[in-house]
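Two proteins follow. First one:
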Amino acid sequence: MPIEDWDKAEDGNLILRPLTHWEAAGTAQSGVLRLVGARLGTDAATGHSHSTQLVLSLPQLRNLGESLLKLADEVEKVIDSAKQ
């Protein structure tokens, strides 16, 4: 998906929700990934944290893992080039 299609605020900047932590569990058919974001916060009345829960197939899990590793490599290169 092109970045132009991502969620944006009224001023045109990307809406970013920092990830504070995640939890993962495996089942016989899929993996379940729970993402908890800082901006989603905790409901003061109930004490429950708000999160996004994803169910991913094995191919999706592998693809996500490979994509995250590739992104980490790209970010590392940018950081290293900025140091020089």
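Second one, unrelated to the first:
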Amino acid sequence: MSDGLSVAGRLKNLGVPWPCPVDFRAAYDVARRTTFMAGISRVHALTPKAVETLEDLLDARPFPRVRLGAARTIAEIAFHQHDAETILRKLDEIEAAQRPESAGRR
């Protein structure tokens, strides 16, 4: 996000009218996607540890509520992964659709 704001600030200092929709939007989109991907990467890195912990909790025989919570969390993670992949695919489609449009404006 800061990359997009930095680019916008530099453009403003150069006398480019504010807002500069094409350049700012492009920088903003890159920053937004980079931030999103950084978060997803962190989740991917923590997934094995989280799954091991949940797997251990599934064996908590004297605590059925803990077992239920662990099972529910595992199912939610699977759904969220599917959602994240869907979001990324849709973002790619939107960005691809906007490329020819923004190139014609310059």
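SUMMARY FIELD: Residues 2-105 form one domain. The mean pLDDT is 77.
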